[in-house]
Amino acid sequence: MNKPGSMFRWLAVFAAGFVLGIVYSAWRIEKAPSSSPTALSKAEEQPADQEKIAKRIEAVAKMLEKDPNNAQALIQLGNDQFDTGNHEKAVEAYEKALRLDPRNANVITDLGISYRKLGKPELAADSFRKAIQADPDHAKALFHLGLVLRKDLNNPKGALDAWETFLKKAPDHPYVAMVKPGVEQLKQEIAEKKK
Question: What pTM was estimated for this model as a whole?
Answer without folding.
Answer: 0.74
